[in-house]
Write a structure and sequence with these properties.
The chain has 187 residues and is mostly helical. It has 8 helices and 5 strands; from the N terminus they run E-E-H-H-E-H-H-E-E-H-H-H-H.
Length: 187
């Protein structure tokens, strides 16, 4: 038992330590994957998610993209600013409604996505789908309870497994794009 001011705190039991360690491993796996994306491909997980969303070839508004990837419009705007500086997206005014700004991907974005690995959540989603319904429901319930225990109910999260504000420098992105335009040298 530890004393914190006038409050006595029980030392965590073995199960509590195991749950905490498992959460740390999850966070670490997400962090390592995010860092690998930035170091090898010059792109973050959220940038890749937006690029994949634009790959259908149809130009879309920032609001439409934000809804599609479950992120806020300001967050998507910031990501698009970085992608546009890297030459991976392009914004233009709608010919039908000049008030609308449409976002589309560039040929460089298509090349980048051909070389980039699958996102961490894609691998997870494939394996999760193989579980029995009862096991999926049990995991969901447990995770929702952990969110409540951590008092993170109000934390908004999109479908992107990523930690912290990682960004890739233009040099890292340029190096990746150069490798990808020459073939499979990035893998």
């Amino acid at each position: 038992m530890v004393t914190a001011g006038s409050r006595k705190i029980e030392a965590p039991g073995p199960t509590t330590r195991q749950v905490t360690a498992a959460l740390r491993r999850i966070i670490r796996a997400i962090d390592l994957h995010s860092r690998t994306l930035v170091q090898r491909y010059g792109l973050t997980g959220p940038q890749l998610v937006l690029l994949k969303e634009l790959m259908d070839g149809e130009a879309r508004t920032v609001g439409e993209l934000a809804r599609a990837v479950s992120l806020s419009q300001p967050t998507v705007t910031g990501i698009l600013d970085r992608l546009e500086r890297k030459g991976l997206t392009h914004r233009s005014r709608s010919t039908g409604d000049r008030r609308k700004v449409l976002v589309s991907s560039t040929p460089a974005a298509r090349r980048a996505l051909e070389e980039a690995p699958p996102l961490l959540q894609e691998h997870f989603e494939e394996r999760f789908a193989e579980l029995a319904d009862w096991e999926q429901t049990l995991i969901l319930s447990s995770l929702q309870r952990i969110v409540a225990l951590m008092e993170a109910d109000d934390v908004r999260a999109g479908p992107i497994l990523s930690t912290g504000p990682l960004s890739a420098s233009s040099e890292q992105t340029g190096a990746f794009l150069n490798r990808s335009s020459k073939g499979n040298g990035a893998r």
